Amino acid sequence: MFKLFLLFYSGCVKGRVFRHLHLPGGEEKLLKLLERIKKVLKKLLGKGRSAGIFLMRVLAYLCLSLLGKACPRDKAGIAVLAPEHGSFADNAKYIYLRLTEEEDLNVVYITPNRDVFREIKKEGVAAEYYPSLGAAMKLLRAKAVVGVMGKSFEGVRGHLTCGAYKVQLWHGDGVKKVQLGQPSNMKNRRRLKKRFLWGIDRRFPVYDLLYFPNREQYAMRKDWFRYKGHAINDMIRNDLLRGRQFGHLVDVYTDRRCLEQIKELKDGGAKLVLYAPTRRRRDKPAFGSRIPFNFTRINDMLKSHNSYLVVKLHPRMRELVDFTLFDRILEYDKLRDIYPALKYFDCLITDYSSIANDYKILKRPIIRYFPDYEWVISSGMISKEAYSKMPGTLCLNFEDMLNCLENILKGPGDDGALGRPGNFSGDRLVEDIRQLLGRYKGEVERVSSPPSPPSG
Fold first, then answer.
1. Does pTM top 0.70 for this prediction?
2. Would you tell me how many other CB atoms lie within 10 Å of the CB of residue 162?
3. Spatial CA neighbour of 406 closest among 270, 305, 262, 266
4. Which end of the chain is more exposed for a tag (fewer CB within 10 A), N or C?
């Protein structure tokens, strides 16, 4: 028996069992049989794994949603969810800084990036790392939660916050075509199966308050979301460009080494140019094939005009350029907040990044260097109509961009004066959040209907 077992085992492994049994074509038949068995087992295991994951999603939805609704919430508690990559930047950073000015509110910043959490925690930011018990407790206790991207309230975060007021600060300028608005997504939202699957993942939550940065964004994307109330209000990050002060934490999570160099150069009378392109294809370098950029030529031109170029890439861009080889070119950390440095630049070079619409607040020259314009338009990545309304001079090749930049640098430059409007977008946002919480500032409360219960 033992010898027969060894014979069968060696045959299964080496594909020779039928040859041992003296059957013609046995080896080929056995291999085909084993391959079929392998495919069937793989399919069964895959279905079992998928079923297990699905069951876990359903259990998480049922259990954590009940916990989120049952947990008593701090009437002054607000959680701010970090943007993509978990950085302390963009609208999430500035709404956190603005809310911390309200002494009666308990504000926490929640990030999925452990390194960011450790760094900003040392700087004095009330932060929690997600996922962790501390972050879960903050989400369960917060009366209002502020998100800045479409995925802010998906999954476990959405379950834990189902008993809180949800505020979404939609960003951008309507130029980029994002996944939420794709025809396939809009079609899937009408299918019962997809609605059920996305429902248990809280893919499309109901926002208690949804902020659009302008009327164009509202007209374009008002049907993408589910919300009880909306407001059209500029992005809070632009309050910084309008002269609002955000306190000593405004420089937290900036590229401080580069920022100090920028300040020194500006104080020394140099002109500064910011080059901030947006992302192209993920994990593929953009400079060279997609964006022709001769850094040697631009470095030589900058010398003759006592100017410097600061390169700030999109967080998703991967480049192999060594900027330390150029004495007139600085690189700003692509993951860090650039907005505290914007006021020092005399000119902006970008392509279709939303930073152009923010920078126009400073009323300084903007060059839209977009050599792959036709390819991006034909691929459907951006809206041609929305892009035509962006500020700045469009340059489709490097020579035109270089000549345009040189003409700008020959000019007198900017005096650095900033406009100071009577109120800021962040003030209205804080007022609306207070209304949701029922915590009105001052002795006299506003006459208005009480806020509706938080969405599930």
1. yes
2. 22
3. 305
4. N
Q: Tell how far CA 309 is from the center of its chain.
A: 25
3-class state of residue 396 by DSSP: coil
- If DSSP codes are grouped into helix, strand and coil, which group holds residue 142? strand
Of the candidates 401, 282, 270, 400, the residue with the CA atom closest to the CA atom of residue 344: 270
Residue 30's contacts (CB-CB under 8 Å, 6 or more residues apart) are: 11, 12, 15, 17, 18
Amino acid at 82: A
Q: For residue 371, is it left (φ>0), alpha (ψ between -120 and 50) or beta?
A: alpha
User: Phi, psi (5° rounding) for residue 169?
Assistant: -100, 95
Strands (E), 301-344: 307-312, 329-332
Structure tokens at 297: 């030529």
CA distance linking residue 118 with residue 113, whole number of Å? 9
Tell me the domains of the chain and their CATH numbers: 71-241+424-437 (3.40.50.11820), 253-409 (3.40.50.12580)
* Residue among 399, 417, 401 nearest 409 (CA): 401
Q: Per-residue pLDDT tens, the chain, 456 aa: give them.
A: 444 444 444 444 444 444 444 445 556 666 777 677 767 666 655 555 666 777 788 888 888 888 889 999 999 999 999 998 899 999 999 999 999 999 999 999 999 999 999 999 999 999 999 999 999 999 999 999 999 987 889 888 988 998 899 999 987 666 666 555 455 555 655 666 677 777 778 888 889 999 988 887 888 778 888 889 898 888 899 999 998 999 999 999 999 999 999 999 999 999 999 999 887 765 555 666 678 888 999 999 999 999 999 999 888 777 778 888 999 999 999 999 999 999 999 999 998 888 998 999 999 999 999 888 888 888 777 777 777 788 899 999 999 999 999 999 988 766 554 555 556 888 999 999 999 888 545 433 333 344 566 666
* Runs of H (alpha helix) within 71-112: 90-99
d(CA 145, CA 112): 15
For residue 256, give the H/E element and its range.
helix 256-267
CA distances from 306 to 159, 273, 410 (A): 55, 11, 10
The whole-angstrom separation of Cα 128 and Cα 144 is 16
SS3 state of residue 56: helix
Q: Per the structure block, which two tokens stand in for 252?
A: 């937290």
